Amino acid sequence: MGTKNSNSKSYGGNKMIRAISRQKIFLIIITLIFVNILSCAQQFGSVVIEKPDEYRHTYEAKETIILKAIAHVLKEKKVGSNFTINQNKLTVDSDYVVEGDWRTKSSARVRSLNWKECEVALAVFTEKKTDTGWEIRRLLDKDQYNSIFSIIELRIYEEMYKVE
After folding, report:
1. E strand or H helix at 50
2. For every one of its 164 residues, what pLDDT tens digit does the chain have, with 9 covering 90 and above?
């Protein structure tokens, strides 16, 4: 019986060592995750790219209506200033909007695919001022572009309603 007692004491000790080891491992894992997040924090929203991303979307409307809708939505979203619609080239371009060390402008092209569909190519230029000049940065992801395209689609319907 004496051996049984000593085994149960050592077993209880092993349990305590395991609990402490688990706590240490958990603490190390949490620390590594935290350090990894901190190391990425500087890059959040500031990925330097060679040229701005360009996304495309197809609409069922005439070019002139789409151009008006694009200009209105981009002006509303403040993704540029002094928007110009070029009916001959089927483009909407803007000047830069400067806020602090950042500036943003946008450009869209409309291309007729067939008698009822047009494709829109949209690019948002976002640049950050650095010691070496302006660097193009990625701030919008595909989800944000899709959101803009959805709003443009709603605006197209509004523009079509105005024409009728």
Report:
1. none
2. 444 444 445 555 666 666 667 777 766 776 666 666 655 544 444 578 888 899 999 999 999 999 999 999 999 998 999 999 999 999 999 999 999 999 999 999 999 999 999 999 999 999 999 999 999 998 889 999 999 999 999 999 998 888 65
- The torsion angles phi and psi of 159, rounded to 5 degrees, stand at -65, -40
Assess contact for 122 and 108: CB atoms under 8 A.
yes
Token pair in block for residue 72: 């209105």
Q: Which two tokens stand for residue 64?
A: 């002139």
For the entire predicted model, the pTM comes to 0.69
* The token pair that represents 60 in the structure block: 């069922």
Contact 29/37 with Cβ under 8 angstroms?
no
Q: Identify the residue whose tokens are 């869209």.
A: 108
Is the separation of the CB atoms in 107 and 125 below 8 Å?
A: yes
Q: Which residues have CB under 8 Å from 40's CB, separation 6+?
A: none
What does the block give as tokens for 108? Answer: 């869209």
